[in-house]
Amino acid sequence: MPNSELLLGNSLQQRSEGAEHVLLSIGDVIQERMFFHPALIASDLTLSDADQMALDAVVNGQDLNAFYQQVLTETATELELGQYKRVRVQLSHCDSNAFSALIAGSLEECETNPMLGARGVSRFASDFYKPSFALECQFIKNLREQGIDVEVVVPFVRSLSDAAKIIDRLAEQGLPRGLNGLKVLFGADTPSAVLLSERLLKYFDGVCVDLASLTQLTLGLDRNNEAVSMGYNVRNEAVLELLTQVLTQANVARKSSIVLTEGLADNTKLQEFLLEYPQCDIINVD
């Protein structure tokens, strides 16, 4: 078990009694409970026979838009979002590889390196994903209208221009940062975001570090590639140096920080490191 002094929160993957914070990842819900590409809702794509049969089995005749919102709402109810002090909803973090594996995955353009492709802000700002982004925002607005003080987590903010762009896009969708206390956190999934964290925190109310993404992009390797996977190590000195920088910047700015980890119970060194940042919320996502 992870050290009891860590501020562990709940998610789809991990639940524990007494947690004060929770993260609902829309990307995880799409992959694990929805099973179809959200762009299908606004598309006139003719599905293959196999995809059509799979879709019919999933939605059982329901309108796709209604089904999308229903699944997200049921997940929010299951997680009992209203009982937590801090509630975060992460916009979809999926890359083209993950989306292409879904029903109607043919809607995705093939990318040579999905890890470095259309993710986060670059996807949300695209014409292709705009209707899907609107659906994600509508879900968040629905929760806030129910009185749940949801904070928005934006994955893969790579630059200052990304920051300005997503703040504008959220406002266009009826989620202006600061209105009725709305907080927006940026995803420090890349070294560039960490190096710019002091300046990015002027646009945002906190930071969320996906440690798996940051590790792979810092070390320049794909942990799913057997030829280099042995080099994957979240405790690598370069990774911990970057993690130190971003968490320290959040503390100095008096803004919230979250770290998304995997296998934390078996990683004593990482636990010891995170204990040095007692204000940091931890989500174990495996």
UniProtKB/TrEMBL annotation:
The record's annotation in InterPro entries points to: PEP_synth, PEP_util_C, Pyrv/PenolPyrv_kinase-like_dom, Pyrv_kinase-like_dom_sf
Q: Which domain of life is it from?
A: Bacteria
Keywords from the named record: ATP-binding, Metal-binding, Nucleotide-binding
Keyword field contains Ligase: no
Every PEP-utilising enzyme C-terminal domain range: 107-255
Molecular function as annotated in GO: ATP binding; metal ion binding; pyruvate, water dikinase activity
Q: Where is coiled-coil annotated?
A: none
Q: Which family does it belong to?
A: Belongs to the PEP-utilizing enzyme family.
Matches recorded under PANTHER family: PHOSPHOENOLPYRUVATE SYNTHASE
Q: How is this protein named in the record?
A: PEP-utilising enzyme C-terminal domain-containing protein
